[in-house]
Every structure is written in structure tokens, then in C-alpha cells.
Amino acid sequence: MNKTILITGATSGFGKAIAEKFAAASYNCIITGRRQDRLYAVADDLRKQYGVDVLPLVFDVQDRAAVFAAINSISDAWQNIDILVNNAGLALGRDSFENASLDDWDTMIDSNVKGLLYVSKAVLPYMTDRKHGHIFNMGSVAAKQVYKDGNAYCATKQAVDAISQSMRIDLLQHGIKVTAIHPGAADTEFSMVRFKGDETKAAQIYQGYEPLHAHDIADIVFYCATLPTHVCINDLVVTCTAQANGIYFHK
Ligand code: NDP
Ligand code: 8X3
């Protein structure tokens, strides 16, 4: 029987690449996102290209009621979730503490921290009942080191780091693995979202070096997910070769 993976934020970037990687290995995929057209297009591609079953669920991870309604509505056939990838998230703005927008801070905290908690709490019963599962949380180099004008975004990713450590302790008794992945700069839609559609500012982030690509992270998640049952990679910081940490690049 095919295994099942649930990936949040699969309409682009890491989430979409992770869905493609696991579908290619015959995993059935539950994929989520807010942009319905995009999500359904990804679902169709996965079905056609890899012949797997795909369940697209449209919801905003910030909306607690919508998260629980969607995940509680999953039919019996889809409840054997082996892997949860908490990937949905975003940065909004890169402004000094005094200039940053409170609305941007709210959105980042509600998506990256509260959204991750809601989805995890909703999916968890499907794993604890079977004493089996693997949760991946998408952190960032920003989880390990705060950078200038990163304020609330860095804080949300440090929270993801803390939540991952705490999950690992609490879920030990259920045989559930928890892996936090902390990528550096990767050329997804991340910077276009962060700079609110400013293509020049977004492009500047990736100039003068080769950043990570979404498929690099997908390959790493797949590697971690397919290790023997008794082996768990807990915490992984991954940068392109030109990046040392959240601050230092060789361009
Ligand atoms: P993308 O912008 O390409 O993808 C983000 C995904 O998250 C989209 O599918 C988006 O879907 C989804 N998403 C965002 N907000 C919400 C929400 N409120 N509810 C539901 N889905 C949401 O960026 P990445 O692939 O780069 O980002 C994925 C994760 O990786 C994020 O958590 C990001 O912080 C993290 N990260 C990114 C790095 C980078 O340099 N790219 C480096 C380190 C970490 P939709 O808009 O359809 O809802
Ligand atoms: C995304 C990478 O360096 O912009 O988390 O924080 S960075």
C-alpha cells in the first residue's frame, strides 16, 4: 500500500518540490495552500505524472476553525498519514524594528507559528492512534541566528526551532519522529512575497551566487524520511555553498 504525506504550502517553492519528490516515489499526497487554482493544478500534475492519489485541501493556516474543519473532514482512506511537512509560511518585509508593520508581524506570527501549531494538533491524532509518524518543520537559518531587520520573521523561526524541540520530547512516547529543516537562501517565491511583488528587490537577494533550489530541500526531506525506523535526523541547517549562516555570503 502507498504511504501518505501531508504537505502544507504546496502551491509553490519547497512544498511543491517536496510533493513532486514524494509522488515520484509513489506516496499519495495531501497538499494544502490558499490559492485554489494553483493547488488544483499541482494536484492534477501529480496525478498525471506519477499516478498517485492526491487530496488538495484549500485553507489558510492562520484560520484555526478552517484548519480543523479541513483536516477533520479527511475520509478514512486518507487518515493513515505517515509524514506531515509543516512548510507553509512566509516573511513579510525586511524593515528595522521601528519601521516594521504590525500587520506584517501579525501575519508572520499567525502563519509561521500559530498555523504550524494548529495543523500539527489537527493531524496528530492520525499519528498517535497508530504510534507512527514523522513530522517535518520548516525553520530557517533565521532560527539559528537573528539578522538585521529580520526581527519578527527571525522570532517566528526561532519559535519553530523551540516547538520542534518540544514536540520531539513530548512525542517520543508515541514513536513519532520530528525533524526540523533550517534552509538558507533559496530561489522560491519567498522573496517576491517578502518584498510584496517588488521584482528588483527580490532578484537582488539571489544575485552573485547560486542559492539553494527547491528540489535541494525536497531531496533532503526525502532522505530524512526514508532512513531506518530507529534513526531520526533531528535538526538540519542547510545552506548553499556560498552562504555560511544567516548573515555571511561569499558573492
Ligand atoms: P514560497 O512563497 O514559494 O511558498 C510558500 C508556501 O506557503 C506557498 O505554497 C503558500 O501557499 C504557503 N502559505 C503561505 N502562507 C500561508 C497561509 N497563511 N496559509 C496556507 N498556506 C500558506 O516560499 P518557500 O517555498 O521558500 O517557503 C516555504 C517555507 O520555507 C516557509 O516556511 C519559509 O519561511 C521557509 N524558508 C524559506 C527559505 C527561502 O529562502 N526560500 C529559507 C528558509 C526557510 P498559498 O500562497 O497558496 O497559500
Ligand atoms: C529564509 C532565509 O535568510 O531570508 O528563511 O531568513 S532568510
UniProtKB/TrEMBL annotation:
Keywords: Oxidoreductase
Record has Oxidoreductase as a keyword: yes
Family matches, as Gene3D superfamilies: NAD(P)-binding Rossmann-like Domain
Secretion signal, residue range per the UniProt entry: none
Pfam families: adh_short
Family: Belongs to the short-chain dehydrogenases/reductases (SDR) family.
Protein known as: SDR family NAD(P)-dependent oxidoreductase
Organism: Parasediminibacterium paludis
